[in-house]
Design goal:
Blueprint: H1 2-7, H2 9-34, H3 42-65, H4 67-73, H5 86-111, H6 115-132, H7 140-165, H8 184-209, H9 211-216, H10 222-225, H11 228-252, H12 264-282, H13 286-304, H14 306-313
Subcellular location: Membrane
Keywords: Cell membrane, Membrane, Transferase, Transmembrane, Transmembrane helix
Membrane topology: Multi-pass membrane protein
Length: 314
């Protein structure tokens, strides 16, 4: 049970839900052109499994390097050293990563594409160096983990784009698909864009929450280098970027005659973003900051599950 908690199953379930929700929507396009579903193909399921395994291993190594800080920031959630020995944590981390990388090798061979190996290998190494060093730097660690979050919908886009065109999206990114002018990859990139900025703000706010523990590690996070107030300003600006982008996107796509019902998940997401900003500026205690980044997580989930909602109302 303690090992399961170490993996952070709720976060892993969010990854699974996001990938399958996006796949369900993309399947509507794929069956239109190819006549078969990919969502429950063994290759897509393996892609989901490998992604979840890398994320789980990343959670383990993050807690492994955060034992000292967690004794101060989250003593009630401390698992490594308290319930699981450090050597077993590091062994399980590498075993899980090896399994995930083996799946990536299989997918690269199956699709004759080096990108699956490349993306998985880069992700594994970023998570290691993020946990061991970059997490305690100013902004860079936050950016890296936000990029990895944005990579989840992007991976699904790569998978489907490759199946539809027979070409890798990085080589032929603007190839039209039949009578539609929009590529699957573009939607994946858009969702990744939203996920990046929301998670970047969430990670920065978590640094405010973890300020006391980070002091013990001599970290150089934003709250410890530029003050909590300035960090709140930066977080607010980052949270507003997706909101302004949404408005611009709405006017750009106005000729498609978007209905109110089509944008309900995005409105829900925007509501929680605004609520998180209000809560952030009212926060002065650790528990308040924790609530703020939970509100941002709800906004992310609502946005990432939008394709699944569109599939239901279609």
């Amino acid at each position: 049970m303690h090992f399961i908690k170490l993996l952070r199953p709720i976060n892993l379930l969010i990854i699974v839900a996001t990938m399958f929700a996006l796949a369900a929507y993309f399947d509507a396009y794929f069956t239109r052109y190819e006549g078969e579903s990919l969502m429950f193909s063994h290759t897509f399921i393996l892609l989901v499994v490998s992604t979840v395994l890398i994320a789980g291993a990343g959670n383990i190594i993050n807690d492994y390097f955060d034992v000292v800080a967690d004794r101060i920031n989250r003593p009630e959630r401390l698992i490594i050293d308290k319930h699981i020995k450090r050597r077993w944590a590091i062994v399980s981390h590498w075993v899980i990563n090896v399994i995930a990388f083996a799946i990536a090798v299989y997918l690269s061979i199956y699709f004759q594409s080096f990108w699956y190996v490349f993306i998985h290998l880069v992700s594994i190494n970023i998570l290691w160096f993020y946990s061991s060093y970059f997490k305690r730097t100013k902004v860079l660690g936050n950016v890296l983990i936000a990029l990895l979050t944005a990579l989840v919908p992007f991976l699904v886009g790569i998978f489907y784009q490759h199946q539809l065109t027979g070409n890798h999206p990085f080589i032929y990114p603007f190839e039209p698909l039949g009578d539609t002018h929009y590529l699957i990859l573009y939607m994946a990139l858009t969702l990744g864009f939203f996920a990046f900025f929301l998670n970047l703000a969430r990670e920065i706010i978590k640094d405010i929450e973890d300020k006391e523990g980070d002091k013990e590690l001599h970290a150089h996070t934003l709250p410890l280098t530029v003050s909590t107030k300035k960090t709140k300003i930066i977080s607010t600006v980052i949270l507003l970027i997706p909101a302004f982008f949404s408005c611009a996107l709405y006017f750009i796509l106005a000729d498609i005659q978007i209905k109110f019902i089509d944008v309900i998940p995005l409105l829900i997401s925007a509501f929680f973003v605004i609520l998180s900003i209000i809560w952030l500026w009212k926060s002065s205690q650790k528990a308040n900051y924790h609530t703020t980044h939970l509100l941002i997580k709800v906004a992310m989930i609502s946005g990432l599950l939008t394709p699944f909602y569109w599939l239901i109302i279609a």
